[in-house]
Write a structure and sequence with these properties.
The complex is a heterotrimer.
Chain A lengths: L2 H31 L7 H19 L2 H25 L4 H24 L16 E2 L13 H9 L2 E2 H19 L1 H11 L1 H6 L4 H27 L11 H11 L4 H21 L12 H16 L21
Antiparallel strand pairs in A: 1-2
Chain B lengths: L3 E12 L2 E12 L3 E5 L6 H8 L7 E6 L2 E2 L5 H6 L2 E4 L11 H6 L8 H19 L14 H14 L4 E5 L7 H16 L3 E6 L2 H7 L2 E6 L2 E7 L5 H9 L17 E11 L5 E11 L2 E6 L6 H8 L7 E6 L2 E3 L7 H6 L2 E4 L3 H5 L6 H4 L11 E2 L2 E2 L1 H14 L16 H13 L5 E5 L7 H16 L3 E5 L3 H7 L2 E6 L2 E6 L5 H8 L2 H7 L1
Chain C lengths: L9 H26 L4 H13 L2 H26 L7 H19 L5 H30 L3 H24 L22 H5 L14 H18 L1 H11 L1 H6 L4 H18 L2 H8 L10 H11 L4 H24 L6 H16 L5 H11 L14
The chains are: A mainly alpha, B alpha/beta, C mainly alpha.
């Protein structure tokens, strides 16, 4: 196999591995841009994965699965909103709580309902989102360079992959070209300014966390119905936190978020491809090193050694009208 | 008399036990500038927040242009043609001027048309009222005066006919304030109604047509500005003779205790707040620093007490150098006999969640008297706190009570007792009687005089000119970060007021 | 916002409200039990009997509680300084490395009573150092400590996997763990203590001497926070960083010292499952105990007494939950993870949800018992 094929295949798996990160990262972007920190991305994604796999296998429909995944994920997002917006609770604490509730209940309910050790039944072909093959993808496969790029890298992914990448320009457009986006950015910086402009801070933030819920729901559905054929316990395996890291890495900007997620997905793809085989020059790199790299990079960024990541100013602070 | 733009009838508002507004009646005539004066905490801001829909009154009625208006949210107020410029600007710092102006007043779900509309509207407002500002500038890059202009533009863009300004000149330089007043007069000429909330009587006299006075939550009087005097308003505001005469003998200044040379301090935004300031404070004298709030006094205090690093300059304490640009920290200065009563007792001078006795050692918790090895000597701390409670008549006299449960005056006494009882050589005091009741004011003033008479050096910073005049042996006036004059205690209020307004400098420049 | 938090009698503040929050968490957990088709009341009975019915159960309950006391204290110490150390999991995991080094090199040489102190020091040191880096980044570079400690949990996990799989694992062994410790690194059991109360002979429960260490640490933490100068400085900074600056307390020093103490306590949590139970250091031996510490600290209101009680409650859940999964196959031990989440939600993020209602109740029963009679709205 020549180098070019390896490169295309690695990039192809980079894309696949980036998708859940990207969806979760954009999810976090909506919430955090509105001033609500969310370390519960992991839990919402997990609950979304379980709900979508369970619903898909019961109703034999990928679409119902997706809908249920989004619904449950949004419900958890609303719990986070209820605690941190309505009751002005600690957002970190609330996020931690949601992660635990999701981790525990997906296993308990999965076992109780399906009796397969916490798994959901394997999804049949019609119950998953299938790959979409672009017109002529097979025909041009033989064309050098462009052929593989078109037929392997661009074509042949599931609908959710394209949704994830389209969500990037869409999010940018929402954030910087719509009234909702303007208000969302404002409420994360100075909620008092939004309040005195006659806009409800609470309702605005609720809408933001609902957006977060929708996207984490899609991320979960992707894990359970595209990357896998069913739910496996703890299948998010820290992806929610990598997404959080990517969000910081991207300095809360949508296009940056895509590149950060592609970078972290690429690291993951490399780690899987190498599996301990030695690299030229560097020698053998432990898999664990590659796995830890996103976190290390984020810490280095946070430390301000490579540019400064400044979070939305009102982030994490419940809004209280001053007396 | 013109028709009333605003009528408030029987407004009441309580926050828990605090009755912030009590049966307020107010009538503001259309096309006038109406001033509302009162001390801090008199209820002015609460009243205006009710009018703007930020709070809702417990009872009472609001009429706008003669029609009853139900103002439950800021939206209702905006719809009724009321705009407000808050004391702390309600702007998003990393947004452009345009984005701030359209926020909440977008014409539809997409921004393009809103921005285009706002751009042409800003051009019109600029022409009409002389409100120039670059629409694409980021707020955080604009000086304060221009930020305020954006606030006014925001209100006008929303079609405000009635404009409320809450302490608008607190953060402005005199030149900026003058400019603001010109704008307000222009607005009046165009038929707008302006409500100006302030505690500065000079502004009231200079610009308003009518003035209402508030005191402790009630509206005590309304006067035509042309027919009243500063003295009358002052008396109405405080309800007592204004100038407190404190009995004190002749000062006997001794050796220089604290000396500051060419001090320069910048704030967190990098703006120079203290600009080449030099002065001495001698043993046995009180040096007062007068000035309008925000002219660098706070930063000066923070630098001298070691809380904030100065950029350059030198200082000595008891003749020995202290490095205010870096090494000096509050703990070390305290050990060398410099005590500090900070301006902000709620967040700096006290930990409100602590018990009273815990606050009575704040900053002196290193003192071996309060320690047994690494442990706190609780018995000694409690005994010491009890002692101070008695000496300073702090009520309630319970050292185990949470500090938040003490009144403002008693909280200030806790700070004062702690700092004075350490017997420091130099005491620096910021706003010692802000938010303090009259009885406690007298007590605090007597204590400061007693410190002086005991041969200590006292540096007093206050925005209350009367306080400065009645306590100080020498008065330094601070303006725009500089000491612009020194006067004796006999200096007249008018003379000091002109210095505080930077008048001499401006005249020299022109 | 001052109004809704009007004064309640102390017993209501520190007793009633936490109990109400806890009760609600358990009611919601009961609903989950219903959802999987079991009877929540029967589940509760099995749970409590499993935890306290026999000496064996009590021993296991206290064994689990031991770990949680350490992790709860760790979170609480940081809380008092206004810091949220979410990295106890990683600090405890890394401490396993210190324990492994000490035990593997000395367990054939020293008796347990000499090796234990060295192991405590090693565990504390490794935990403290792992907390030191996020602390330094917070103090000097302004990096948010919640995020950095989360990242450090994952980095710790990667390091430990690498160490256990590639470095420490005995050659030829399959399982990614150290060799078994010899007698010198096995802590003596305390089961006899429970037998003293008339329970039948306990055959195999890992309840061991590190429980005593945990209680000593609880007392030391109380002493530290409320009786030492350092604790005073920590609390000052926790309540008001500006006041701390005014009082001459170095921000950098207090953050570093507090986080090192917090990390050391998290590190000590590793002693119980390794030297006290498994007698090796294995993959993922911390298994979430660091996160349980968050629930325990919130429930115990960051007070050592509350933390010990809350730890015993969680120990009961872990032990009783194990019994429960035998009786009700639908309810595995993951049920505890849900309860843990619910406790964190209701005792933490929603801790004030029931306060206005309880205040109204008190006010209607006896208006004078409440600090203020009239609660304003919207303030």
């Amino acid at each position: 196999m020549d180098f070019f094929d390896v490169a295309v295949q690695t990039l192809d798996s980079t894309v696949r591995l980036s998708v859940p990160l990207l969806l979760a990262c954009l999810a976090g972007l909506y919430s955090e841009r509105s001033g609500i920190f969310d370390i519960g991305l992991e839990g919402k994604m997990l609950a979304g994965a379980f709900a979508s796999a369970a619903a898909a296998s019961v109703f034999h429909s990928a679409w119902i699965g997706l809908g249920m995944g989004i619904l449950i994920s949004v419900a958890l997002a609303l719990v986070h909103g209820f605690a941190s917006i309505t009751h002005r609770g600690n957002q970190i604490v609330s996020g931690v709580a949601i992660n635990f509730v999701a981790a525990g209940s997906t296993i308990i309910l999965g076992q109780a309902w399906f009796k397969q050790g916490g798994r959901t039944p394997a999804l049949a072909p019609g119950e998953r989102f299938e790959a979409i093959v672009f017109p002529g993808a097979d025909a041009v496969r033989g064309v050098p360079i462009l052929g593989p790029i078109y037929s392997e890298l661009l074509s042949g992914h599931s609908l959710l992959v394209y949704i994830a990448f389209l969500a990037v320009p869409f999010t940018w457009w929402v954030l910087f070209r719509t009234r909702f986006g303007l208000r969302l950015r404002a409420v994360g910086e100075n909620p008092a300014a939004v309040d005195t402009a006659g806009i409800s801070v609470e309702w605005l933030r609720y809408r933001a966390v609902i957006c977060t819920g929708i996207l984490t729901g899609i991320a979960g559905a992707y894990l359970a119905m595209v990357q896998n054929a069913g739910f496996v316990k703890d299948m998010t395996a820290g992806k929610g936190f990598i997404a959080l890291a990517a969000l910081i890495f991207a300095k809360w900007k949508p296009v940056n978020a895509m590149f950060a997620c592609l970078l972290f997905g690429f690291l993951d793809a490399i780690a899987i491809r190498l599996q301990g085989s030695p690299l030229p020059v560097i020698g053998r790199v432990p898999v664990q090193f590659m796995q830890a790299l996103p976190y290390v990079l984020t810490v280095v960024l946070l430390a301000g050694f490579i540019g400064k990541a400044i979070p939305p100013r009102a982030g994490g602070v419940p809004y209280v009208k001053e007396r | 008399m013109a028709e009333a733009a605003i009528e408030l009838i029987g407004i009441n508002k309580s926050f828990g036990p605090v009755h912030a507004n009590r049966d307020i009646n107010l009538e503001v005539a259309r096309g006038t500038i109406h001033g509302i004066v009162g001390e801090n905490g008199a209820g002015k801001s609460t009243l205006m927040s009710i009018l703007y829909g930020f709070y809702q009154a417990d009872s009472g009625e609001i009429k706008v242009n003669g029609k009853p208006a139900s103002i439950k949210t800021s939206n209702d107020a905006i719809a009724a043609g009321i705009g407000m410029v808050h004391q702390h600007f309600m702007l998003v710092d990393n947004f452009t001027v345009l984005e701030n102006v359209i926020l909440g007043a977008e014409s539809n779900a997409l921004l393009n048309s809103s921005i285009a509309k706002a751009r042409s509207e800003l051009v019109r407002l600029e022409r009409e009222y002389g409100l120039q500002v670059n629409p694409d500038a980021l707020i955080e890059e604009l000086p304060v005066g221009l930020q305020q202009r954006v606030e006014i533009l925001k209100a006008l863009y929303r079609g405000a006919e009635i404009l409320i300004l809450d302490e608008p000149t607190g953060v402005l330089t005199p030149a900026e304030a003058d400019h603001l007043f010109r704008i307000l007069k222009q607005l009046k000429e165009q038929g707008k109604t302006v409500v100006l909330i302030t505690h500065k009587l000079r502004e009231i006299m200079a610009i308003t047509d009518t003035v209402s006075v508030m005191r402790q939550g009630t509206m005590v009087a309304t006067r035509e500005t042309a027919r009243t005097t500063v003295e009358e308003l002052a008396e109405l505001m405080v309800g007592r003779r204004v100038l407190l005469r404190v009995d004190k003998g002749e000062a006997k200044p001794g050796a220089v205790k604290l000396s500051v040379k060419n001090l320069v301090v910048r704030d967190s935004r990098g703006v120079t707040m203290v600009d080449d300031v030099s002065f001495d404070v001698r043993a046995g004298e009180i040096v007062g620093i007068a000035g309008v709030a925000g002219n660098g006094q706070s930063e000066l205090l923070e630098a001298i007490s070691g809380i904030r690093n100065a950029v350059s300059g030198s200082a000595t304490l008891d003749g020995k150098p202290i490095d205010l640009t870096g090494a000096a920290d509050p703990g070390e200065l305290r050990e060398r006999g410099l005590a500090h009563v900070p301006e902000d007792r709620h967040h700096v001078g006290l930990v409100l969640a602590f018990e009273e006795n815990e606050n009575s050692i704040l900053g002196y918790h290193d003192d071996p008297r309060y320690l047994k090895g690494p442990l706190l000597n609780i018995d000694a701390i409690l005994a010491d706190a009890k002692d101070k409670i008695e000496k300073y008549d702090i009520r309630p006299s319970n050292p185990r009570l949470k500090t938040a449960n003490f009144s403002g005056g008693n909280q200030q006494k806790i700070v004062l007792a702690r700092e004075i009882e350490q017997d420091p050589g130099v005491l620096i005091v910021g706003q010692p009687t802000r938010g303090v009741d009259v009885g406690a004011i007298e007590f605090i003033h007597k204590r400061l005089i007693a410190m002086r008479d005991a041969g200590k050096a006292v540096l007093l910073v206050s925005v209350e000119l009367d306080e400065i005049r009645s306590l100080s042996d020498r008065i330094l006036v601070m303006f725009a970060g500089r000491i612009v004059g020194e006067r004796g205690p006999e200096a007249g209020e008018g003379e000091l007021g002109l210095l505080m307004a930077g008048v001499e400098r401006k005249e020299a420049a022109e | 916002m001052s109004v809704p938090y009007a004064k309640l009698p102390a017993w209501a503040d520190y007793g009633l409200i936490p109990l109400v929050n806890l009760a609600v968490a358990f009611i919601v957990a009961g609903l989950v039990v219903l959802l999987v088709g079991e009877n929540p009341f029967r589940a509760a009975v099995i749970l409590v009997e499993g935890a306290f019915g026999r000496g064996q159960g009590i021993a296991y309950t206290l064994f689990y509680a031991t770990t949680f006391i350490f992790s709860g204290l760790s979170v609480a110490v940081a809380f008092h300084c206004g810091l949220f150390n979410i990295g106890g999991e990683g600090q405890g995991y890394i401490a396993g490395l210190g324990i492994a080094i000490v035990c593997l090199s000395l367990d054939s040489v020293l008796p347990w009573y000499l090796l234990f102190p060295i192991a405590i020091a090693a565990a504390a040191l490794f935990g403290a150092l792992w907390a030191l880096i996020p602390a330094w980044l917070q103090a000097r570079r302004g990096s948010h400590i919640v995020i950095t400690t989360i990242m450090f949990n994952f980095i710790a996990a990667s390091i430990m996997v690498y160490m256990l799989v590639d470095v420490i694992k005995p050659i030829g062994a399959m399982a990614p763990q150290t060799r078994n410790f010899l007698d010198g690194a096995q802590l003596p059991k305390l089961n006899w203590l429970i037998e003293l109360f008339g329970f039948a002979k306990i055959r195999s429960a890992p309840f061991n001497i590190s429980f005593i260490l945990a209680l000593v640490m609880a007392w030391l933490v109380w002493l530290l926070v409320w009786r030492t100068k350092l604790g005073y400085e920590m609390r000052t900074y926790g309540f008001s960083p500006k006041a701390a600056r005014y009082a001459g307390i170095s921000e950098t020093r207090i953050i570093l010292v507090t986080m090192m103490i917090s990390g050391a306590l998290s590190g000590m949590m590793a002693l119980n499952p390794t030297m006290g139970d498994q007698h090796n250091v294995a993959l993922d031996f911390v298994s979430g105990a660091g996160f349980v510490g968050i629930a325990v600290a919130l429930m115990g209101r960051s007070h050592p007494v509350g933390i010990v009680l809350a730890s015993i409650l969680f120990g009961m859940l872990y032990q009783g939950g194990a019994e429960l999964s035998f009786e009700m196959p639908n309810i595995s031990r993951d049920m505890i993870v849900i309860i843990q989440g619910l406790v964190i939600l209701f005792a933490g993020a929603l801790e004030h949800m029931f306060r206005p209602a309880i205040q109204a109740l008190f006010a209607s029963l006896s208006p004078k018992s409440v600090g203020m009679a009239q609660a304003g709205k919207g303030a």
